[in-house]
């Protein structure tokens, strides 16, 4: 996994301060991962592959957002179910959502709500929202994330920008910071990680590769060139010369200013940034910080060429403390409302709404009945998701829950169906994409019976 703007390393190990393990991560990625990327670029050039720049922004709400306080209110239910919030009308007749989302309500024609998402594993874990599958001992570290499948199948849209990019903050609950990995597709397709932990955050003014400055990187490039020169002396066919252009293209990702510029919000119009709100870099306990402007960074990344951008936002595990569910909701619902509508407005203003799909979701829903602390506990039986863009049919609700929002009453939707939809939006037929693991077993991105959500077509 590549990590931009990484944390500083203590002295020790190699002469540049990296220990052996870090060298294998950074140097091994440079000499291995970036050598794998040239092979991919060379293969694409040879076959004449061209791909359109479709993208997905996956916004993960770690901790389990309360579905019936957000998108599926039950005003006629008993008080211990309906909670403290009231529904409001939206721009689309017949659709109501929580009063703390007035901006989304006014833009409801640009959103679709899924109220019948089923099949959650019930774990406090981003894994299912990254892969479409529950985490098991068999697939842990084995199954590629959505972004990794896209990276392997389509490659980079721009040689200076990785196809699969992560804005997922490492969290105290480590599974809330899980952004997926390359699995059996290889480390070169793992997300390019752009944010650090509590101490580092995002440092667009200090471009490093796992603590390796560009000066040190250039030293290593010089070392690589030395190996290449030696290889050329014994390479009768001259194939090393043919790889030069692809090595340079791979190195562009590390040395080009394009990726750095994409995360540099000083280059963004201040009036546009203002619409997203103000960042709060403080981490919410064991969750992520309230970095509302990362929604803008995500848009800038897909503009720059990223195909998949994954991010996490604050902490949604609210069932402890007296009434904490509603206290936290009053704080975080308006932030999400403002940031996600600013993102969708930007995509429409730039003519990107047909090419960029956006999904907002968490790992499960919340109990319909309030607990003895006036909060909601874990409820994997039902949850919701918010979709936008991607050329999908907007301004609708898909599925419904029963009277108390306990279970799906109609049109249950699975994670596999959502990922089938996202692959379709990317221009990929997951049934035609077959890759083999280290044991030679064939795999497809999703299950054979999973189909794109027909209501979105």
TrEMBL record:
Signal peptide: none annotated. This is DUF1501 domain-containing protein. It comes from Gemmata massiliana.
């Amino acid at each position: 996994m590549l990590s931009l703007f990484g944390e500083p390393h203590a002295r020790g190990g190699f002469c540049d301060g990296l220990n052996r393990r870090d060298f294998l991560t950074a140097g091994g990625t440079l000499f291995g991962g970036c050598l794998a990327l040239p092979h991919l670029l060379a293969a694409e050039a040879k076959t004449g592959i061209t791909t359109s720049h479709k993208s997905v922004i996956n916004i993960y709400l770690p901790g389990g957002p309360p579905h019936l306080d957000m998108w599926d209110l039950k005003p006629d239910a008993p008080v211990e179910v309906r909670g403290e919030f009231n529904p409001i009308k939206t721009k689309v007749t017949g659709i109501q959502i929580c009063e703390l989302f007035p901006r989304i309500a006014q833009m409801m024609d640009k959103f679709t709500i899924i109220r019948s998402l089923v099949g959650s594993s019930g774990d406090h874990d981003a894994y299912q929202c990254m892969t479409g599958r529950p985490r098991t001992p068999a697939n842990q570290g084995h199954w590629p994330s959505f972004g990794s499948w896209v990276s392997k199948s389509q490659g980079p849209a721009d040689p200076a920008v990785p196809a699969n990019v992560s804005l997922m903050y490492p969290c105290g609950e480590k599974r809330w910071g899980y952004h997926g990995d390359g699995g059996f597709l290889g480390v070169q397709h793992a997300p390019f990680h752009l944010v650090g932990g509590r101490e580092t955050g995002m440092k667009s003014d200090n471009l490093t590769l796992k603590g390796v400055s560009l000066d040190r990187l250039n030293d290593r490039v010089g070392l690589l060139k030395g190996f290449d020169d030696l290889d050329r002396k014994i390479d009768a066919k001259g194939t090393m010369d043919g790889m030069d252009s692809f090595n340079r293209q791979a190195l562009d990702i590390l040395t080009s200013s394009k990726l750095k510029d994409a995360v540099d919000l000083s280059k963004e119009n201040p009036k546009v940034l203002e619409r997203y709100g103000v960042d709060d870099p403080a981490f919410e306990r064991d969750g992520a910080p309230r970095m509302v402007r990362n929604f803008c960074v995500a848009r800038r990344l897909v503009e720059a060429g990223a195909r998949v951008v994954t991010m996490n936002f604050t902490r949604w595990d609210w069932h402890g403390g007296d009434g904490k569910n509603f206290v936290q909701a009053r704080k975080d619902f308006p932030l999400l409302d403002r940031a996600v509508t600013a993102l969708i407005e930007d995509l429409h203003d730039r003519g990107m709404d047909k090419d960029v799909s956006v999904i907002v979701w968490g790992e499960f829903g919340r109990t319909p009945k309030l607990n003895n602390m006036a909060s909601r506990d874990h409820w994997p039986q039902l949850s919701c998701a918010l979709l936008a863009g991607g050329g999908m049919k907007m301004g609708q609700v898909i599925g419904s829950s029963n009277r108390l929002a306990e279970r799906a009453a109609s049109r249950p939707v699975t994670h596999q169906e959502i990922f089938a939809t996202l692959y379709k939006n990317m221009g990929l037929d997951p049934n035609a994409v077959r890759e083999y693991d280290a044991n030679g077993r064939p795999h497809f991105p999703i299950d054979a019976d999973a189909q794109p959500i027909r209501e979105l077509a």
